[in-house]
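Input/output pair, single chain:
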Amino acid sequence: MSQDVTMYSGDSKTLAISIVDGDGDAVDVSTAESVIYAIADSSRGPAHVTKTLADGVSVAGSTVTVTLEPDDTEDLAGVYYHELQITDESGNVDTALSGAITVQRDLVP
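Output:
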């Protein structure tokens, strides 16, 4: 699923991402082996920001919540690529979200 986001550098931002299948039905990902969210210059990386289940990502049923803290984006400004990848308990990997994240420079330090 493509999802574009806009935010200000150094701000807190919470992304609530609904995981659905090809028919639009909710998919329970609460038993996922790993969930990784990343922000990079392009899909070829390297990542400027990486969030995992142990740090900034939580899962409840079919909703993945990514919490970006001010430190995560304080040095970013521009248009970046972001992606959410889920590995289920069987080892199947799915890129559940990708798109552009625009980080606008915040004027207030």
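The chain has one helix and eight strands. Strands lie at 5-8, 13-18, 34-40, 47-52, 57-60, 63-68, 78-87, 93-104.
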